Amino acid sequence: MTIKEIYKMQEALDNSIIEKKNLNVDPKTLLNTRLLALFVELGELEEEINAWENLTNFMMRKSIKSEIVTVSKEKVLEEYVDCMHFLFSIANSLDIEEYIYETYEIADFSEHPDDILYYEDYQPETCTLSDFLIIFSKFTNYLGNWKYWKKEKEHNKKYLLQKWHEVLISFIKMGTSNVWNFTAEQIEEAYKTKMKKNYERQENNY
Questions:
Q1: pLDDT at position 203, please?
Q2: pTM of this prediction?
Q3: Which of 12, 34, 76 is nearest to 164 (CA)?
Q4: Beta bridge partners of 2
Q5: How far apart are CA 200 and CA 206, in angstroms?
Q6: From CA 193, how far away is CA 47, in angstroms rounded?
C-alpha cells in the first residue's frame, strides 16, 4: 500500500466524518483540531509503551513467558496506527495530495529515502517517541508561523510537503526501527483494521 493510497483512504474517512456530523469549521480550526488530536494520541501511545515495557521487564526478571506481553505489544501497535490516522488527516488539511509521491510505500520510508527529500532537522537510524515529539513540535511551530492557507505558490506547497515527510519518516522509523520492530505489513494491516472500525463507528453514530 503506497503512501498516496493511505492518504486517499484517510481523506475518504475524514470527508465521511465531516459529512456525517455535518461539521462546519474553517480550515485553520480543523487543522489545529487534528494537530491537538495527534498530541493526545501520542500521550495514549506513551501510556501503552510504558505498560508494555514494564510488563516485559517484569516477565524477564521473573523468567516468565506469557502471551500477555504479545497482547500488550498489540495495544502499542493499535495506538500507533491511531496516531498514523491523524498524521494523514493533517496532510489532508494541508492539501498536499498532488505532491505526495505516487509509488513509495511504508517499507520505503523505513529506510533512508535520500532520493525523496533531504533531512533538514533529523536523520536518525532509529527514532524514539521523545525524538518524534521534538520533530512534531517543530512541525507544529512551523505551521503556526506559516500562513499556508494564504499561500498558493507551488514551491510553498512542496516545502510544506518536505516538512510533513520529515515527520512521516520519523514516525515510521519510530515503529519499524526501534525495540517494537513492527513490519510495514503489520502497520498497514493494523491501519486498515482501524479504518474499518472507524467506519463502523460512523454507522453507529459514535
A1: 82
A2: 0.85
A3: 34
A4: 105
A5: 9
A6: 21
CA neighbours closer than 13 Å in the CB half-sphere of residue 42: 20
| Alpha-carbon gap, residue 186 to 80, rounded angstroms | 11
134: which 3 cell numbers? 521534538
Alpha carbon distance 197, 203 (integer Å): 10
Sign of the four-CA dihedral 100, 105, 107, 108: negative
Grid cell 515503529 is found at: 175
* Ranges of the chain with pLDDT below 50: 116-119, 121-122, 149
Beta-carbon count within 10 A of 42 CB:
19
**Diameter over CA atoms, the chain:** 60
Q: What are phi and psi of 103, to 5 degrees?
A: -105, -15
Using the structure block, give the residue that is written with the C-alpha cell 480543523. Answer: 30
Burial of residue 75, with CB atoms counted within 10 A of its CB: 0-12 exposed, 13-18 middle, 19 or more buried: middle
Q: Please give the pLDDT value at position 68.
A: 66
Position 100: which residue type? I
Compute the Cα dihedral for 142, 11, 6, 178 and give only its sign. Answer: positive
- The domains of the chain are located at 3-203
Report yes or no: 44 and 79 within 8 Å, Cβ to Cβ. Answer: yes
> Can you point out the beta strands (E) in the chain?
none
φ and ψ at residue 105, rounded to 5 degrees: -115, 175
